[in-house]
């Protein structure tokens, strides 16, 4: 009877459950993911060679006694310029050694002072040179009349070997003068505590909290025209999406001991957690679906508007549907649930396992049961598509902003260039559509020297 009255009065028939979209009582999840930024510095061997020459004495006085012969030695040894060169994975060095003296007759010495360096970084951000030196003398004889020659080689080589520990200490002190490596680590650590607003969403901030400071031991690089050692300094931070009316405040934690391990220096690897607003997805779905008309049982069916909300791991769509009858149009609200997922074939967010909710199905039976046709569900599944290019462009802007903040706060020491941003996964968490984005790029070599000047 109600239907007859409605048709006679010329009204539009509405069939709906009266159910509203669910509102998520839970707050937006605070998502955090580990990210890494690494700096790379090339230290020319020439700089290390200069420090080694400056800290190694150029001559040594010899005042000793040949006990077996009761002969006193007087003289001096001189070295030439120390030259560094690659020696496998280590750094080799060599210098000529000459000397002369009397005992009581004159004596002369010729030979080579050589050894290796294997710089390593300690947890306190100081560099140990691990200098190992030894001498090899070819001429070191005391020629006495009427007696066999007396070799001075063992005595003088021992004297030079005894200089190695003090030479190592002086070189280590010179390399670490001013604690430049620790100062750079402290700067990177401090500047990595950042808060950057997200452009794609109001009242949302990308917060970076460093968790570890990583240093890689120096590696010899002979590919360039001028041999050098490369050193990596990296930071691991948790990136967290925080939803707040005001920008969060961060307290800078104390610089932790260095974590020593190999890293791919000069790289940026950011993992950015995002939340895709259901309303944004619904707007795009509506745009794609309202432009088409579907034929069901000789009736033209068009979806006019879609609203969306999340519940647990499901996205609920409230679809306003208009069916064209020859006598009267009919409108209904269809509630459909589905699981958002990442479709790699066309790089988009789609819904799978679509189904009409039980409440809607009961209300629509009879009057508009044809709206429950699998064809309509299939149609929504095919057309309800959100291209990832939109999210990737927004994520790129957010990461670029974060990188710009790092460059500014580090006074140019961290110059990152983001070359690739992509969405890696899509899912539901606590009723929200969670999108995992990653960004890769390069970090320019630090232009400032990592070793002190002369």
TrEMBL record:
InterPro entries: DUF4403. Pfam families: DUF4403. It comes from the Bacteria. This is DUF4403 family protein. It comes from Solimonas terrae.
């Amino acid at each position: 009877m109600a239907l007859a009255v409605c048709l006679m009065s010329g009204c539009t028939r509405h069939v709906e459950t009266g159910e509203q979209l669910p509102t998520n009582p839970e707050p937006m999840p605070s998502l955090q993911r580990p990210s890494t930024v690494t700096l790379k510095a090339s230290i020319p061997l020439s700089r290390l060679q200069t420090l080694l020459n400056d800290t190694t004495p150029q001559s040594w006085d010899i005042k000793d006694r040949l006990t077996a012969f009761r002969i006193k030695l007087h003289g001096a040894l001189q070295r030439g310029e120390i030259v560094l060169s690659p020696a496998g994975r280590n750094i080799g060095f060599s210098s000529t050694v000459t000397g002369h003296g009397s005992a009581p007759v004159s004596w002369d010495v010729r030979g080579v002072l050589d050894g290796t360096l294997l710089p390593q970084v300690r947890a306190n951000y100081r560099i140990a040179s691990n200098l190992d030196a030894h001498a090899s003398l070819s001429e070191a004889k005391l020629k006495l009349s009427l007696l066999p020659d007396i070799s001075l080689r063992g005595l003088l080589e021992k004297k030079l070997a005894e200089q190695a520990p003090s030479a190592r200490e002086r070189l280590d002190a010179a390399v670490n003068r001013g604690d430049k490596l620790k100062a750079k680590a402290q700067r990177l650590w401090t500047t990595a505590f950042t808060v950057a607003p997200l452009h794609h969403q109001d009242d949302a901030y990308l917060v970076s909290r460093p968790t570890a400071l990583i240093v890689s031991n120096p590696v010899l690089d002979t590919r360039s025209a001028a041999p050098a050692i490369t050193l990596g300094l990296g930071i691991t931070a948790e990136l967290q999406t925080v939803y707040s009316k005001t920008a969060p405040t961060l307290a800078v934690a104390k610089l932790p001991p260095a974590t020593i391990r190999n890293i791919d220096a000069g790289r940026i690897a950011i993992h950015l957690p995002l939340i895709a607003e259901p309303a944004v997805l619904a707007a795009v779905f509506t745009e794609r679906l309202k432009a088409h008309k579907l034929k069901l049982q000789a009736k033209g069916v068009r979806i006019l508007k879609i609203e969306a909300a999340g519940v647990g791991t499901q996205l609920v769509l409230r679809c306003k549907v208009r069916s064209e009858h020859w006598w009267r149009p009919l409108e209904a609200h269809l509630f459909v649930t589905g699981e958002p997922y990442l479709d790699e074939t066309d790089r988009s967010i789609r819904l799978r396992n679509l189904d009409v909710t039980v409440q809607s199905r009961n209300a629509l039976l009879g009057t508009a049961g044809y709206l429950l046709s699998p064809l309509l569900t299939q149609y929504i599944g095919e057309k309800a598509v959100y291209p990832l290019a939109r999210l990737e462009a927004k994520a790129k802007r957010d990461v670029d902003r974060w990188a710009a903040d790092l460059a500014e706060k580090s006074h140019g020491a961290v110059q990152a260039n983001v070359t690739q941003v992509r969405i890696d996964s899509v899912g539901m968490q606590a009723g929200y559509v969670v999108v995992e984005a990653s960004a890769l790029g390069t970090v320019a070599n630090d232009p400032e020297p990592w070793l002190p000047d002369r």
